[in-house]
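=== RUN LOG ===
request id: a7f3
mode: sequence -> structure
chains: 1
length: 154
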Amino acid sequence: MIRVENRFQKSAGAAQLGGPGSLAEAQYGTKLTGRPLVSIVDDDESVRESLPDLVRELGFTAQAFASAGEFLASDSASETECLILDIMMPGMSGPELQEELKRRRQHIPIVFITAQTGENLRRQMLAKGAVECLIKPFSDEALLDALNLALRTN
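=== RESULT ===
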C-alpha cells in the first residue's frame, strides 16, 4: 500500500482542495476548474484503491487501471491529461507503455512511480521523457508538484 504524508490540513473556513480558492489553487496560482483526468496504471491493487482518492483530494479527476493493456483498450487513453504509471508491471511495463504511446503519437505527460530506489533509475526515466519519477512512499505535496508540472507541459 502506498503511504503518503498528508500535509494539507483544513483550517476553519478553508476551501476544499481543488475548488476555487483551494490550497492547490493558492499554492500554484492555477484554477483547477476543468478537473483534468489523471489516469493511474499500477498492478498493485492497494495503489489502485488509494492513489485515485488522493488524486481526487488534490483536485483532479482520477481513474485507475490494473495493466497497460487495460488502459490502452479504454476510452480514457484519449482523454487522459496526465498518466501516473508504475515502472514494474507484469506484461507491458511502464516504460514499454510509454514507448507504445509514442508509437501511437499520443502525447500524455507521464509521472512514473516505483518502489525501486536509486537516482540512476529516476535519471533514466526523466531522460526518456517522463515529467517526474517518484519513489514510493511519496508525499502528497510531491505528487501535487509532479501533476502540476505535467499539466503545464501538456
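=== NOTES ===
The chain has six helices and five strands.
Residues 1-33 have pLDDT under 50 and may be disordered.
=== END ===
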